[in-house]
Amino acid sequence: MKQTNRCPKCGCEDILYIPGTVGPYGTGNNIKTGMTVFSSVEVDRYVCTACGFSEEWIREEDLERLIHTFE
Q1: Which structural domain range is residue 49 located in?
Q2: How far is CA 30 from CA 1, 14, 20, 25, 62, in A?
Q3: Do 30 and 20 touch, CB atoms closer than 8 A?
Q4: Would residue 25 count as lying in a domain?
């Protein structure tokens, strides 16, 4: 959905982009990679408005930090 702007389940082209967030106490859609919320990696969501299917994506610039943390 991120690259095609089309739902792989139903084919709908009406896709919502919901950016990842990091809020107080680690709230939001993120993955914690350190001791504070400032080290969190945001997880973006793409949601089909027709069937509700969703995908989550990590931004390319954050992939190396996740690999270093969890490998």
Answers
A1: 15-70
A2: 19, 24, 6, 12, 11
A3: yes
A4: yes
Residue 26 is predicted with a pLDDT of 81
Burial class (CB in 10 A: 0-12, 13-18, 19+), 61: exposed
54 within domain boundaries: yes
8 domain-assigned: no
For the chain, how many structural domains are there in total?
A: 1
In a domain, 9, yes or no: no
Q: What is the pLDDT of residues 1-57, one digit of tens each?
A: 999 999 999 999 999 999 999 998 889 999 999 888 889 999 999 999 999 999 999
Report if pTM > 0.90.
no
